[in-house]
Design goal:
The chain is mainly alpha-helical. The chain is built from 6 helices and 3 strands, in the order βββαααααα. It has a 3-stranded antiparallel sheet with strand order 2-1-3, with no helix packed on it. It is elongated and about 70 Å long. About 8% of the residues have low confidence.
Length: 230
């Protein structure tokens, strides 16, 4: 049986032909490359065995982004600023800036919504204020989350815009824009979450929408991370 590897997410398919679409990231079959196994020969002095060569050729390199060439910018046309940006972008991939950054809103957002629900149930204004401040933190961090996510897509995943990637981008943008809207709304109308406000349930519903979008983005992001034996 042949083995085919998805160049977007690293999924390995076993079969005579690659699948029409990657079951993990949704990339089409053109993104699959065949993994060819060669029979190892006896080592000769000064010569690498085919197994060693195969291991070097098929070892995944997308986790750092350092092996991706700068195809879009000719070497002669690169400015010092462009070279600096490329170096920083690849360092962000190497040291997992996106997974680290995205944990901040993923952790703070549920707390913000919990405080909001408790404030509505028990009429505690301090909890509603805490919810508001937590949402401000989410909004402030989201631009970095979106940038590092875009950087990961370009340098780690090769810039292939699959349905999975597109959905993840839409969800991340929804969290940021809707969170910004709620912060401005609460800033303009500090009483929006109180019991006598006619908009309090709409205000709560939009918080739940943000949580759902963040959960979907996190789930899809997890599908792009494959471990040995998966």
């Amino acid at each position: 049986m042949k083995k085919w590897k998805c160049t977007v997410c690293g999924y390995v398919h076993t079969g005579d032909e690659p699948p029409e679409k990657c079951p993990v990231c949704g990339a089409d079959r053109s993104k699959f490359v065949e993994l060819v196994e060669e029979v190892p020969k006896q080592d000769e002095p000064g010569r690498e065995t085919p197994s060693k060569v195969m291991a070097q050729q098929t070892a995944p390199t997308h986790d750092t982004g350092f092996d991706l060439p700068d195809k879009d910018v000719p070497q002669a046309a690169q400015t010092v600023l462009q070279k600096y940006y490329t170096a920083v972008a690849r360092l962000l991939v190497k040291y997992h800036a996106h997974p680290i950054t995205v944990h901040i809103p993923n952790g703070v957002l549920p707390v913000a919504i919990l405080f909001l629900v408790l404030s509505m149930l028990f009429q505690v204004s301090g909890l509603e204020t805490a919810s508001f401040y937590n949402m401000i933190i989410v909004v402030l961090v989201m631009p970095k989350v979106l940038f590092t996510g875009y950087n990961d897509w370009k340098h780690r995943l090769g810039g292939n815009l699959t349905n999975l990637i597109l959905t993840k981008m839409i969800c991340g943008t929804t969290v940021f824009l809707l969170g910004l809207f709620l912060v401005v709304w609460r800033w303009v109308d500090p009483m929006v979450a109180l019991s006598y406000s006619q908009s309090r349930m709409t205000y709560l519903f939009l918080h739940i929408v943000i949580l759902g979008a963040a959960a979907i983005a996190g789930y899809l992001g997890g599908k792009l991370i494959r471990f040995p034996g998966d």
